[in-house]
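stuck on this chain:
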Amino acid sequence: MSVFAQEIRLALRGLVRTPWFSLTALLMLAAGLGMCLYMFGAIQSFIFTQPAFHDPDQVLYFDLRNQRSGARNVDTTLTHYEFLRERQTSLASIGAFYVGTANLSDADRPERLSAGFVTPSVLEVAGTSPVLGRSLQPTDGLPGAAPVVLLSHAVWQNRYGADPSIIGRDVRVNGQRSQVVGVMPERFSFPAREALWIPLRYDAVQPEAGGSPISVQIVGRMQVDARIASVQSEFDALLRSHAEEHPARKAPDGVVLKKFSHQFVNEITRGILLTMFAAVVLVLVMACTNVANLFVARSVARLRETAICSAIGASRTRLLTRLVAEAGVLSLLAAALGFGMAQWAGWATVRAVHASEDAPPNWTAELVIDGWSFLAAAALALLATLAASAIPALRLMRSDLNQALRSGGAGSIGGSAMGRKLVVFQVALCTVLLVCSGLTILSAVRQQTVEPGVRTEGVLTGRAGLFQGSYPDDAALTRFAERLQSELRTIPGVTHATLSTSLPMTRSSRNFIEPEGFAVDAEIGPPLADAVAVDSAFFDAFAIAQQSGRGFSSTDLADSLPVAIVSRGFAAAYWPGLDPIGQRLRLGRDESVGEWRTVVGVVGDVHHEAEDAAGQPRVVYTPLAQTPARFLSFALIGPADTDSLHDAVRAAVQRVDPDLPVYWLRSLDDWIRESRFENELLAMLFGAFGLFALFLTAAGIYAVLAHSISQRQREIGVRRALGADNRGLLRMLVGQNGRLLGIGLAFGLVGALLFSPLLQRVLFAVDPRDPQAVGMALAALLVTVAIAAVVPVRRALRVEPMAALRQD
């Protein structure tokens, strides 16, 4: 057996003989590595993974702005796009698109899918061609062209069984017969999660009369030798020129160019991920320094054994080899365990994130923790443990083993100065992590306590989208709504059925409002409110209390007086001290502003926008008969087990329109849970970081105190012999180590003040410097320190003077 193999065997035996040391060091290092790998995988997936385009770094997204008003993401029409397309020279190709939903049906059941409505040049920008069939052609977007559609690879596989004869087959898209002309590659997704691509019809997005043009988004591919700065300059000049030619329009007059992927994984997400990665790197450093402390303490305990091995002929090189072997074995075990932890956490996170309706882009579908990550983890763990073992190894080289053998192992090759510095560092870092944990936990708790303002038990919700071909006007939309409500009410067990454009605690349609008599800031523009169109059964179905006035009735029709009902918070904000009944308001802005509506009622506050349901909601309700919509949500009040109604609901919708799929079929409780998911996930992750940091800090404090007391037993014995009592000894120990704690807390609080604002944009109704979060962090840290100090301090107080004096 080779020397190294023998040392590996002895290292394993040594780790088994000291289970507490081995298990503690292993778990510390594995947890730190696991957290680091998990965050590395998240960053790799959400920041560095690029769309499956040809040379994706060359693809730019255009964020058009109005410099005069400061507005961002201003409405962009095909007029703007055509102006830029005809005059630009720095892009190899440029395209426009908008995203929506499409109902796909054929012989199989109808299905609602996310769709991209694109100019054919968009696929040139992406540099991607179909794997089957042809791409979109310029003639496909002309008025009167035969409708065609491209399928995603997933739709082709899952719905059509990867049938190659799908090309040329007719399907129904939004009730319109369309021909499948191509299937896109497996990983292709544009712009984010779309499953169908439909030619953007100029006559559809730019109506000749009535209504407003649909906004589009612009993307472009740079020329090979172009630079973003030069493209920016050219398009800024073009947009200023266009704005000067059309001064009466709210036209964009500037642009901010960004890489395409940056638009769909925004800066907030990137900032949070990088913040969390910085946190786990520091946690890993804490873990490694604690492992170093454990190695030092272990080397002290094994000093006599080491001296005996040296006395019987073992060279110092052989002794060092044993230390390295132990470090190597421990690092490989920690890397394997940490890799498994990260894999499980990544799988659970991806499963949860992609189950939400607001899922990230498809190209971030996996949290990548591959074999290279494992090798990196093993290398990092090996480096950490070798660094940890280097301290006792270097001191072993300098120590007098003969003196250690004569003294029976008394003394130490470790010093307490390093341990005290480590405690200061750990307390400071732990304070930062605990404050962040407190902020995210407080955010999740406050979101949990938000009252929706409606009944939630036994509420089944769903949504349907109506297409232009089958429902060309408001009268057709109204007839559909009446028929659907009638069918839903006939379902056994249903006590209420209601239709609206959005439901409580889901997602509302925000709109600009102009309350009569309210002074609107000319620079900021009109305020926003949740604008919801509802039927007359909505308030009774959700048990929303009527505060004053009346509800909607069957007489509030399209040709009757335009009316509205507002929430209590809306009335208090815009008509304080006045009777809101009889007041008037308008919805919309500029050219799209609506008619004046008379307020006929005030109802209780209801949170419609779940993601920022903080403060007092401001909601405007209009009769569905006066504001028909193509996208309708419905709610049924029935049995507690809402899943039992799913088949009956689908059958009811099919009776009204067999081409119409139902989506978002879930209970209102599920919606509420989903709305809280991001805050809860953030709280869980930072909570895990904080708890692990607490554990490491407690271990460090325990180790330093235990080591310090073991080295000062003679001093303690002398003090005892001179008459010192427990109170005096306790004051000495607490005073010396309390200073370390105070210094660490001071540095930690400063760090927390600098670090916590990075979380501001994801906190729910919590200030990043919330004193409650700081108080929670300090309380948790002080309790942990007290618990960690109990055993060493009790040991110090039990020292007998004569026993301590006899040690030397």
